[in-house]
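This part of the workshop introduces the protein records we will be handling. An example says more than a description, so a record of this kind follows.
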Amino acid sequence: MNSTVKRSISGIVFVGIVLAGLLLHKLAFAALMLLVMVTCMHEFHAMTVGGKFIPVRIASVLTGVTLFCLVFAVNAWGMPAKYCSLSFVPLLSAIVLSLYSREREAGDNFSAVFTSLVYIALPVSLSPYLVFNGAGNFSGMTVLGFFLIVWASDIGAYCWGLLLGRNGRKLFPSLSPKKSWAGFWGGLAMSMLTGAVLGWTGLLDFPILHCVALSAVMNVAGVYGDLFESHWKRLSGIKDSGNIIPGHGGMLDRFDSSLLAMPAGAIYLISVNLI
């Protein structure tokens, strides 16, 4: 019971922080995204390279933070986009520092530091394009809708997998033995239903059919995002990426699906000319 209460309270606090970051103010959004980025990158580095490459890890995190801040300034205050190139300064620093690292011969481990830039920093850094319009006005409703779709997918997959997937065909047993095809279809159905409701209520300002299609795209991408993190956790021999959220694991455990689902959702909306 204590574990259930702890998990429930931490889950409520987590959702409250996300909602505050998306709905209160553009600076609250920036703070939320930077918290997510820095924490996820730290957890990814800790589980893949441990205590190695500290200067390179710091430079890679600074690269992500710099890129996010510059992209945010472009969208929020109209700063010329050319200044985003300044994010190459900490990136080049990371590359140069890697040459002087005593552990540089461990190429496989070292590559994980730069993987975090593509897997975590880049998607988070581009998120301001989803919350600002051309005039610099802020609204977090689209990103909130994205999160609701991802969360609905997770809930549907968990419930259907628990009820129907224990003895059924597994989705990807080499990476995640508990994930089943029943859970996948349950997550897909729940995410598409959520997308339809969001479109019908106007919380997502897109036609309902596009909201449903968007949800399907995000569900599939989210599954691969979850599996990608599972791959790295299996290589590292750990169950959770961290323990920052009591009862839920690490920050990366909460955002692994979103890191691929949200860019996929944005690509879909761009491809059908809705953003």
Observations:
- The CA atoms of residues 73 and 79 lie 6 Å apart.
- The longest strand covers residues 176-180.
- The radius of gyration is 19 Å.
